[in-house]
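chain below, 153 aa
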Amino acid sequence: NLPQLEGSSIEQALKGGYSLHTYGSGSKLDLLIAGTGSETSIAVDAAKLLAEQGLTVKVVSMPCLELFSAQSDEYRHSVLTPGVPSISVEALSTFGWHKYVHCPIGIDTFGASGPYLELYELFGLTPEAIAKKALKIVDYYKSTPVPTLALEF
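prediction:
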């Protein structure tokens, strides 16, 4: 059972990806976290942890990369804000995410089985582990220009 997330809707999901919510009170985004399916609620929880540490984090729900890719350049850039470090959270794989975010987080091995909560802990797919990785990414981009991703398809 997945939670109904504030800001989500069927109409938004039909675009393949959309801005769900921004956490934190800063006027400038520090990070963008994109989540898919059940991982979106994990992304929200990680964003809340980061906001408690003073960061401003935009969470994007990305249920379908193919539908998102079919949207206009303007729309894609409004969702995946240029100039902001970005990560994705998808348990299945990080494959394909490099054209959308700077650092995909997911499981890139085969054959692991067990209760999902244990696997998420093992592979760093918990809000705490994601927040820890996110802080490193934000720190890295404080001294390195954030590369522009080629969102034109």
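The helical segments are 10-13, 39-52, 65-69, 73-79, 116-122, 127-140. The mean pLDDT is 93.
thats it, cya
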